[in-house]
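Re: beginner question about structure tokens

> Can someone show what the tokenized structure looks like for a real chain? I only ever see the sequence side.

Sure, here's an example I had lying around. Input first:
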Amino acid sequence: MGQCVTKCKNPSSSLGSKSGDKDPGGKSHCKKGVGGGVCKEEAGPVCAKSPSDLLANGTKKMEAESRVISSHPEDAWKEEPAANGEEFSLARIEELFSCYKDEQDDAILEEGMERFCNDLCVDPAEFRVLVLAWKFQAATMCKFTRKEFVEGCKAIKADSIEGICARFPCMLLEAQSEDNFKDLYRFTFQFGLDSEEGQRSLHRDIAIALWRLVFTQDTPAILECWLDFLTENPSGVKGISRDTWNMFLNFTQVIGPDLSNYSEDEAWPSLFDTFVEWEIERRKKEAEQRSTEALPEAPDTQEGGAS
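And the corresponding structure tokens:
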């Protein structure tokens, strides 16, 4: 879903195109604007949030979570009515969908997704949008089918822009549990594929962006080293397979930051072997450089002697 913003903004700050190519002109191809009718009226109070309520990564401060929530955060909002104080309405969900649906296709596509995210006051490339797509079980970036949108709104019991925004804090908490995060993590791989082209692996640049995105709330210590390795690409990897994607989550949970407990004899993908060798060598060179820089300089010798 964050994919649609890449055609409107600098790809270096978003997910990049599915092919990994950057938009050379950097010009917007998405029409800006707020959804009409009910969408426009409901967006007002939500968008009145001040910038100080946002964290550096774009997510809002979790002040709403300071209230007492059970040990199962996913249950905290399932018993709540819609934000308007009534049970959610299927008719209102359908009406909300109609605000953003494409004129020719019975789905919310790139332009409608841009307006939808604008009304939610979220950047299409931020973590909250990924979580919403996960809750909606969206099959494709930058697209919600009618069924995905309607069933997703029913699942979170929201039938308005305001209602969806009110659900974000609990959805973020829900994504933190181990089982739910594993499901979100695996969903993210499938979400990043171009289903129309029948892709079976993620382009390396898309995988790098999605790894940064999915680990927004809990970043593994080894993540940036892994992404540096992929960026420098010493192994010549062009795509990330589903197995490599899934195993990296296990890697972050099992292997310590110092990599000392990594064993090539275990059933890790060969790319991990290359990464560990590369990272250990990189750390060794850095340690040698620091050691050299720490050596005291030789004292200056004065010319001439005593008269």
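Each token stands for a local structural state, so reading them left to right follows the chain. Confidence is low (pLDDT under 50) at residues 1-71.
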